[in-house]
Design a protein that fits this description.
By secondary structure, the protein is α/β, with parallel strands linked by helices. The chain has eleven helices and seven strands. The chain has one domain: Rossmann fold (3-Layer(aba) Sandwich), CATH 3.40.50.970. Bound molecules: thiamine diphosphate and magnesium ion (MG).
């Protein structure tokens, strides 16, 4: 009895330390798992010839979900990048919508089937439509934040990209501008070790992307992006500070891309099986489950229940989305010109 009580007290204390409620922790696991299971089914559909292209976030779910959970949904803006399925799920995308996007269906709320898969966008959720050209979203984020500051609108913008993208000019211009004007932007970099086949040491002469912030007089942090709780704990105070006029923040989440760059990439040409196996052991989903089980936050049955729910949602989404209509050819120019 005493052991049970002290275990309960300890887990209560841990929840306080996590800065997340039990409900939020369960949601965190749900979103990470949903992102992974969706990506797995997407890749299977691609291999079956049913989906043209997949670019996944496997290995980056903890970074994405931890960061997105630190935002105010529907209030804060997000300028995400292609791997950010996890971010979009937190902001309200469901499994069915994710599959509509993959299959370029008429009712895909991101672009109504006009863009490639994983090119996100949603007006009500304040997800900014993105370009295939990497890092352009950082400039959009700085612009949105400038407008918010001028209107005295207490919002924050979270812009994300991969570490390879931080070597583009847009990244540096956006950081410089945001720092000069103390704009409420969180620049969130998911460092997954590669830009397609290029390792980070060939992308930049620094060990940490976060070190680039110093050149702009900006605050920065490095966080273990395989740890959703740590990511949340790092992003949440930066968001609060930015909202209160404290200026921008660069956060680098160290993670690893567990899958090839995309469904068109052969990663055996540039990395070894051994390297992959070592990182697979650190899989963020496994780590999260282990931690909340060890800390007695949830009994295994509750986590199994989440897994079952996710499996069911993904199964339903695939079946349902495949039955949905494709865009009509005569609608191809819709949303392009005001009038034809
Ligand atoms: C300006 C520009 N150059 C090249 C590409 C082709 N491209 C697409 S993704 C990518 C790699 C980006 O690497 P990183 O920023 O580390 O993101 P990751 O894919 O690793 O998540 C490249 C080179 C592009 N989309 N835009
Ligand atoms: Mg990368």
């Amino acid at each position: 009895m005493t052991a049970v009580r002290s275990r309960r007290e300890r887990s209560k204390q841990l929840i306080d330390e996590y800065l997340l409620s039990e409900h939020q922790l369960a949601q965190m696991y749900y979103y990470m798992l949903l992102a992974r299971r969706l990506n797995e089914r997407m890749l299977a559909l691609n291999r079956q010839g049913r989906a043209p292209f997949v670019i996944a976030g496997a290995g980056q779910e903890a970074a994405q979900v931890g960061a997105a959970m630190a935002l105010k949904k529907g209030t804060d803006y997000v300028a995400p990048y292609y791997r950010d399925l996890g971010v979009n799920l937190v902001l309200g995308m469901d499994a069915r919508e994710a599959m509509l996007n993959l299959l370029a269906k008429r009712d895909d709320p991101n672009s109504y089937g006009r863009q490639m898969p994983a090119h996100w966008g949603h007006r009500e959720r304040r997800v900014v439509t993105q370009s295939s050209v990497v890092t352009t979203q950082f400039l959009h984020a700085a612009g949105i934040a400038l407008a918010a500051k001028m209107r005295k609108d207490p919002i924050v913008v979270l812009a994300s990209c991969g570490e390879g993208s931080t070597s583009r000019g847009d990244f540096h211009e956006a950081l410089n501008f945001a720092a000069i004007h103390r704009l409420p932007v969180i620049f969130f970099v998911e460092n997954n070790g590669y830009a397609i086949s290029e390792r980070t040491d060939k992308e930049m002469p620094l060990e940490h992307v976060a070190d680039r912030a110093r050149g702009y007089g900006m605050q920065s942090a490095v966080v273990d992006g395989l740890d959703a709780i740590a990511t949340y704990q790092t992003v949440a105070p930066a968001v609060a500070q930015a909202r209160n006029g404290g200026g921008p923040f660069l956060i680098e989440a160290k993670c690893y891309r567990l899958w090839p760059h995309s469904s068109d990439d052969d990663d055996t040409r540039y990395r070894t099986k051994k390297e992959l196996q070592e990182w697979a052991r650190k899989d963020p989903l496994k780590q999260f489950r282990q931690r909340v089980e060890d800390d007695h936050i949830f009994p295994p049955s509750e986590l199994d229940e989440i897994e079952g729910r996710v499996e069911e949602e993904v199964r339903d989404a695939v079946e349902w989305a495949m039955q949905q209509p494709d865009p009509a050819p005569e609608d191809a120019l819709g949303f392009v010109y005001k009038e034809l």
